[in-house]
Amino acid sequence: MADIARRFGWRHLRSAPTAHIRHHKRGVLAHDGAGLSFWYRSLSAALSEVPVNDRELAMAFHARTADFQDVTVQATVTYRISDPAEAAARLDFSVDPDSGVWRGAPLEQIATLLTETAQQHTLDVLARTPLSGALVDGVATVRERVAAGLADEPRLPATGIEVVAVRVVAIRPEAEVERALRTPAREQIQQEADRATYERRAVAVERERTIAENELASQIELARREEQLVEQRGTNTRREAEENAAADGVRAEAEAARKVRLARAEAESAREVGAARAESQAAWLRVHGEVEAATLHALAATRLAENLPRIDSLTLSPDVLTGLLTKLGRPAPETRA
């Protein structure tokens, strides 16, 4: 919408670069162009504002396929007004000189024209296409047909309208039909999911079996190594017993040899001691054989005295003393009267 300012009974219009302004003053075209700015009097001015930028028109309508299924078509048409003078002559783009607001609804008229034209070509295409084909290839087919139909529509160039692009967003059936169509695919997907689940379970079972086999193999290997360990320990024990027995035998032989040598030494010592004692005894006997009887008696008395208990004092009668001295070959002592 143009920007209109008031000054002392005059009006000043300032338009956007994308708006084409046509100013007629008393039936004569005074200004014609985009992005204009000028002064005018509202009582003698006739203004038209035609947008020349690209505009998007979204549309949605129902159609019926060859197998009598209702579908919804969503499309977007991009258009622009290439000839503002022709468009202003065919459609009401006039604006209020005081407010700059359109007096009519020209864009709605253009939208109706484009929508009905596109819908007509869409219905013609889908009426000859079954639902499955419309859902699979209908978007491209409808887009090409609508673009070609709008390009061949004579009213559009006559109105100064140029179609820039046509886009078909979606072709969708009714909700119940869409759910029914999705069922086989969902079943297929579910079957694939079940198959994947079964395969995953089979893989899991196989892995568990492999793990169990590995554990069993580990246990068997452990048992075999324990058997080797027990066997080695038995061998070591036998070797240790043999070594201990051999060591005990060596110690016993050494002890026996030591005892034999000790016995021999003791026997030899005993023989030497006996011979010495015999020789000493023989010498003692020889000495006693050569000594007089009185000396032997005296020695016997001495030995006897050595073995008798201690006698502090002894009293002998003269007769006993005389007889003893006589035996010893000594004179008897004289007696006093």
Automatic annotation (TrEMBL):
Source domain of life: Bacteria
Pfam families xref list: Band_7
Source organism: Streptomyces laculatispora
SUPFAM superfamilies named among the record's database cross-references: Band 7/SPFH domain (SSF117892)
Annotated spans, Disordered: 231-250
InterPro entries: Band_7, Band_7/SPFH_dom_sf
Protein name as it appears in the record: SPFH domain-containing protein
Domain Band: 33-197
